[in-house]
Amino acid sequence: MKKNAKAASHDGHDHECGPACEHHPAAAGGIYLVSPSSAVRDPQTVELARERLAAEGFKTALDRAALATHQRFAGTDKQRLAGLARAAAQKLPIVMATRGGYGLSRLLPYIDWTAMADSGKRFVGMSDFTAFNLALLARTGAVSYTGATAVRDFGGKRTDALTVALFGEIMRGELEILSFETRDADAVDARGVLWGGNLATLMSLLGTPYFPKVRGGILFLEDVAEHPYRIERMLAQLAQAGVLQKQKAILLGGFSDYKLAAHDQGYDLPEVIKWLRREVKVPVVTGLPYGHGDLKATLPIGQKVGIATERGLAHLVIDEHHH
Q: Are the C-beta atoms of residues 300 and 289 closer than 8 Å to each other?
């Protein structure tokens, strides 16, 4: 896989793009902010996110129910479904979730997936939004995005410069290759449909009409606050359901904020990865900059991509058109 042009390295994560890689705010388009999952705790974080997105060239509009609250949710089910419908019908090209949390799973049977796909919007979110991403792919084959969210990545005390840059580049269609450091990668050079997201949310869709049937895909996974044994249990279920063996590669992002116990006696995440390799015989690549940490790439779910590794590096080819 040839590289076209290489941007400067940031903490070992290179992002490569073509001649359009200069910052072009006018080309960014606009973002409609919607809350399909948990309630926004502090409205000021959304306002700060809007200011920072504007500085990146993205004008924003806030759905009228985006700050609603009902129990733990951002409004009732009816309100949140109406918000998604408005998001698909309005004029701005990008629809971004304010945050994740929980709430999309119970909405899936009531979303008009054809309307979502036909809208042509670039839907983007993360964590609980994995349910939307995967359901959209399963029901329509449409591409959507996972990575940055308004509150988490644009509304906090600080932003991660590379996270912001990668979001802008992929939304403007500039990102061709995402290169990242990997200390533990199997040799692979493959192409396939990129899919995945939050592991626990993905697992909640297994056996439902909202779980994509991807063969020969490139599956990427992350999670937060899940002990390694819970991660292994979910991976075991995916393996026993025959899902993992059908993939060309498995990319592992961040698995953060868990605590090991004394009785684990050396059982940790690296041991889970060793088990995974023994169990499924599919190339595994670690170090994908994606997860619940500060640094995250925004990735296209449902798009055909390439993955290749060399010593200490992996290259995710986002734009296959030029390769």
A: no
**Rounded Cα–Cα distance for residues 304 and 111 (Å):** 25
Respond yes or no: is residue 292 known to be catalytic: yes
- Residue 262 CA: distances (Å) to CA of 146, 256, 259, 275: 35, 18, 10, 20
Query: Which of the residues 13, 227, 292, 315 is marked catalytic?
Result: 292
Q: Span 177-317: which CATH code?
A: 3.50.30.60
Residue 10 burial by Cβ neighbours in a 10 Å radius (0-12, 13-18, 19+): middle
Residue ranges per domain, the chain?
Answer: 30-172, 177-317
- Is CATH 3.40.50.10740 the right assignment for the domain spanning 30-172? yes
Predicted model pTM: 0.92
- Could you say which of 222, 227, 232, 315 is catalytic? 222
Output phi, psi for 220, to 5 deg.
-120, 145
Catalytic one among 38, 127, 179, 204?
Answer: 127
The question of whether 222 is a catalytic residue gets the answer yes
Return per-residue pLDDT of the chain as tens, 323 residues. Answer: 333 323 323 344 454 443 333 344 445 689 999 999 999 999 999 999 999 999 999 999 999 999 999 999 999 999 999 999 999 999 999 999 999 999 999 999 999 999 999 999 999 999 999 999 999 999 999 999 999 999 999 999 999 999 999 999 999 999 999 999 999 999 999 999 999 999 999 999 999 999 999 999 999 999 999 999 999 999 999 999 999 999 999 999 999 999 999 999 999 999 999 999 999 999 999 999 999 999 999 999 999 999 999 999 999 999 866 54
Residue 127 annotated among the catalytic residues of the structure: yes
